[in-house]
C-alpha cells in the first residue's frame, strides 16, 4: 500500500505553515508515499450550503486555510520522491491559464510528481467571491478539463467553449509529466462518477474514521465507475483510486490503521491519504501521528 498525508494547511496546523518544508521532508524520510492539499477559498459566516453539500454549517477547522499551490511548491522543493497531490482543488474557481501555469510550475519543480485532483465544490459563496455562477460549476469543470488538455499538450494553445475562453497563445513551457499530468477527480454523485468514467485518470473518494466508513458504498461506487468506463470504451483498470481518510477528533492511530487495512482488503484500494487536521494541533504532532500510522499499517 501507499500511505500519504495532508500538508499542514487547515485548522491549528495552518498556523505552522512556516514548517511545511520540514514536515514534507520528515514524511518522505518516514516512508510516506505522497503529500496532499485540499482547497478552501473561504468559509462563509452564513453559508447557504454546508460542508460537503449538507446542512448549513461549515466546520470551524476550515476557517484558517493556507494556499494549496504555495504548499505544494514548498513540498516539491523539500522532497525528491513523494507524489504531490490535491484532494481536491475546487478547479472551476480558477481561470484555466492561471491554473495550468501554477500546476505546470509545481510539476516541473518536482520532476513530474504532481497528481492534480479536481472537484466542483459545494460552496455557493466561493463561486460568488470568484464572480462565477454556482449552478454552472459542472459544465465549467468539463470545459476546464478541455482547456487544460489544450494548454498542456499544444503550442500555440487556445480553447473556446460556452463557459471558458482561452485566446490562442504561446505555450512552450510544459509539465514534466507527458503528455500531461493525470486528471484525478473527486466524485460521489452519479453525475460526478460518470465524469470520472469519461474523463478521469483517477478517482478521489472519501471516508471519515470512525464516523463515516462505508466500505460497501465504496465497492458499489467503484463497480458503477468501472461499468460506465467500459461503456465509454475505456479500460477501468487504468483509472486509479486514492482514498482520502479524514480522522474524527479523539480517534486512535490504531483505529485509523485498522480502517485502512480493512478498506484495502475489501476494496483493493492501494493508495490512501490521511488528514489529521481535526485531531492533531501541531506540525510536530502531525509528523509523529504519520509515523505511527505508517508503523501500524506496516505491522498489520
TrEMBL record:
Protein known as: TIGR03619 family F420-dependent LLM class oxidoreductase
NCBIfam families: F420_Rv2161c (TIGR03619)
Domain of life where this protein originates: Bacteria
Keyword Flavoprotein: yes
GO MF, one annotated term: alkanesulfonate monooxygenase activity
Database matches in InterPro entries: Lucif-like_OxRdtase_Rv2161c, Luciferase-like_dom, Luciferase-like_sf, SsuD_RutA_monooxygenase
UniProt cross-references to Pfam families, sorted A to Z: Bac_luciferase (PF00296)
Keywords: Flavoprotein, FMN, Monooxygenase, Oxidoreductase
Domain Luciferase-like: 1-264
GO biological process, one term: alkanesulfonate catabolic process
EC number, as in UniProt: 1.-.-.-
UniProt KW Flavoprotein keyword: yes
Amino acid at each position: 500500500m501507499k500511505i500519504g498525508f495532508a500538508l499542514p494547511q487547515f485548522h491549528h496546523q495552518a498556523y505552522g505553515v512556516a514548517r511545511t518544508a520540514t514536515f514534507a521532508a520528515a514524511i518522505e524520510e518516514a516512508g510516506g508515499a505522497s503529500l496532499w492539499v485540499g482547497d478552501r477559498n473561504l468559509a462563509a459566516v452564513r453559508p447557504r450550503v454546508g460542508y460537503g453539500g449538507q446542512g448549513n454549517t461549515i466546520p470551524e477547522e476550515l476557517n484558517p486555510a493556507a494556499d494549496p499551490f504555495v504548499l505544494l511548491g514548498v513540498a516539491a522543493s523539500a522532497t525528491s520522491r513523494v507524489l504531490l497531490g490535491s484532494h481536491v482543488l475546487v478547479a472551476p474557481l480558477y481561470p484555466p491559464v492561471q491554473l495550468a501555469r501554477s500546476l505546470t510550475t509545481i510539476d516541473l519543480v518536482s520532476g513530474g510528481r504532481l497528481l492534480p485532483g479536481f472537484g466542483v465544490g459545494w460552496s455557493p459563496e466561493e463561486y460568488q467571491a470568484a464572480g462565477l455562477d454556482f449552478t454552472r460549476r459542472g459544465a465549467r469543470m468539463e470545459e476546464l478539463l478541455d482547456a487544460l488538455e489544450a494548454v498542456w499538450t499544444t503550442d500555440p494553445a487556445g480553447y473556446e467553449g460556452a463557459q471558458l475562453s482561452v485566446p490562442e497563445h504561446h505555450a512552450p513551457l510544459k509539465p514534466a509529466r507527458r503528455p500531461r499530468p493525470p486528471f484525478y477527480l473527486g466524485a460521489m454523485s452519479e453525475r460526478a462518477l460518470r465524469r470520472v468514467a469519461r474523463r478521469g485518470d483517477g478517482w478521489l473518494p472519501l471516508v471519515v474514521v470512525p464516523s463515516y466508513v462505508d466500505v460497501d458504498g465504496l465497492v458499489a461506487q467503484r463497480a458503477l465507475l468501472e461499468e460506465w468506463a467500459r461503456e465509454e470504451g475505456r479500460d477501468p483498470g487504468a483509472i486509479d483510486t486514492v482514498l482520502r481518510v479524514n480522522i474524527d477528533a479523539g480517534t486512535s492511530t490504531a483505529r485509523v490503521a485498522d480502517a485502512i487495512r480493512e478498506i484495502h482488503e475489501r476494496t483493493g484500494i492501494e493508495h490512501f491519504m490521511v488528514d489529521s487536521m481535526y485531531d492533531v494541533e501541531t506540525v510536530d504532532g502531525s509528523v509523529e501521528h504519520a509515523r505511527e500510522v505508517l508503523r501500524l499499517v506496516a505491522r498489520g
